[in-house]
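Lecture notes, continued. The same structure-token format from the folding unit now serves as the input rather than the output. Read the line below as a description of shape only.
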């Protein structure tokens, strides 16, 4: 499904002009420039709306292995009536993995027992279909081959290549290991300190792939890394590399991301790969932080996609983030990439009330508006959607005072195809650079 791009980038179809510098294909063994990285996504035909078109691609079919896995999955895709954020929160707690929010209903994944409990509580379930039926019906939501996306091996190789070829400002280290023993790689951009050496510079942290099926988040984080290094000699970027401490961790949940594509077809897997006591797979990493852990908007049921785990920080992946943040008192800003909804969210997620510190709340609001000027996403407090406890950004702000945000990337599914990567990377890189511009002193937005 995934083809190696990092070190053997082959471009068969190029745009007439690159969005950024780098109009020629990278030669074998070269690290692609940002322009080449964007151009590598241009070979997929587009619809009039700019989405991936399947007109010239082979008709996709479920492989026997994928069909077997999905038939035994046990989840349903359901539409449930929900009038407001309070009802949406209750549905999360009942085990519904809310994927889409409409005016008076939500759509998402849940198991039969969980749907039955929702019905017993009075929720109206308008329709449901097995995940196998859903997969067959929605195959055209993504191209037959998403070869432009980077799997774990390709992500590792690209990060290693970037660090090796930019030793003046870049270094790569493992922040820890996943449940299955994969390294959680972090690329550091800093002209003075390398690796895990402490820095007094203001720090910024970008992290992707908390959720396994959100592969686009990895591409945005990788695209940011390539862009900053490709433009390291330009005055604005050079200034950030010389004055800030920049960390990019593209793939936190490497086990889950690999599990999601293991059969050659997507599994719609959200969590990590812990085997729970009931033999279900995974803990929702974005419900596992010690911030009002597993109160509202999370489930204690292991089979639920919103399962918070047996305790806060029970998972090695979230424990890596905990230790990473606690060891870096210089961090001022944080971005956690997710998909999909075209939103930019800020604390609180776990409380229905706004951030109590008025000064901080105004910084959150102004910074969010600054970033969404580049993406066109909607900025809002996380809990305006629903209350969800155990969230990354709530924990980072409550524990360390970090101005932490969640970006919900664009798209109409978790698997929107390769053509969407170019626009998502381009716009979100601009938003990320805006975050760099205020990281030295976020409070300057109020002056």
């Amino acid at each position: 499904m995934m083809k190696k791009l990092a070190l053997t980038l082959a471009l068969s179809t190029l745009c007439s002009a690159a969005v950024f510098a780098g109009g020629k294909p990278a030669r074998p063994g070269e690290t692609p420039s940002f322009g080449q990285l964007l151009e590598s996504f241009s070979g997929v035909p587009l619809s009039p709306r700019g989405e991936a078109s399947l007109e010239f691609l082979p008709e996709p079919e479920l492989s026997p292995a994928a069909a077997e896995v999905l038939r035994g999955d046990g989840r349903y895709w359901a539409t449930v009536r929900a009038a407001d954020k309070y009802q949406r929160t209750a549905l999360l707690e009942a085990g519904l993995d809310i994927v889409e929010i409409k005016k008076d209903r939500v759509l998402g994944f849940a198991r039969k027992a969980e749907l039955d409990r929702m019905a017993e509580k009075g929720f109206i379930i308008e329709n449901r279909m097995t995940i196998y039926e859903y997969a067959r019906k929605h195959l055209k939501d993504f191209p037959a081959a998403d070869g432009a996306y980077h799997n774990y091996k390709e992500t590792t190789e690209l990060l290693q290549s970037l660090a090796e070829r930019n030793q003046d400002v870049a270094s790569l280290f493992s922040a820890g290991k996943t449940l299955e023993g994969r390294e959680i790689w972090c690329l550091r951009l800093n002209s003075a300190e390398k690796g895990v050496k402490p820095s007094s510079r203001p720090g910024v942290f970008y992290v992707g792939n908390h959720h396994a099926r959100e592969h686009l988040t990895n591409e945005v984080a990788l695209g940011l890394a390539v862009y900053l290094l490709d433009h390291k000699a330009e005055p604005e970027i050079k200034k950030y590399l010389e004055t800030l401490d920049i960390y990019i961790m593209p793939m936190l949940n490497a086990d889950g991301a690999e599990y999601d594509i293991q059969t050659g077809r997507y599994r719609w897997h959200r969590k990590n790969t812990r085997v729970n006591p009931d033999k279900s797979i995974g803990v929702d990493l974005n419900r596992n932080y010690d911030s009002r852990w597993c109160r509202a908007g999370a489930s204690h049921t292991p089979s639920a996609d919103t399962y918070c785990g047996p305790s806060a920080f029970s998972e090695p992946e979230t424990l890596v983030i905990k230790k990473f943040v606690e060891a870096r008192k210089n961090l001022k800003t944080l971005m956690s990439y997710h998909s999909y909804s075209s939103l930019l969210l800020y604390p609180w997620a776990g409380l229905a009330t706004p951030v109590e510190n008025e000064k901080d709340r105004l910084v959150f609001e102004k910074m969010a508006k600054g970033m969404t000027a580049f993406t066109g996403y909607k900025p809002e407090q996380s809990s305006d959607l629903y209350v969800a406890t155990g969230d990354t950004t709530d924990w980072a702000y409550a524990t360390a005072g970090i101005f932490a945000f969640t970006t919900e990337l664009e798209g109409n599914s978790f698997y929107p195809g390769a053509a969407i990567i170019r626009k998502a990377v381009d716009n979100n890189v601009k938003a990320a650079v805006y975050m760099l511009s205020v990281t030295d002193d976020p409070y300057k937005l109020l002056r």
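Point for the exam: The radius of gyration is 21 Å.
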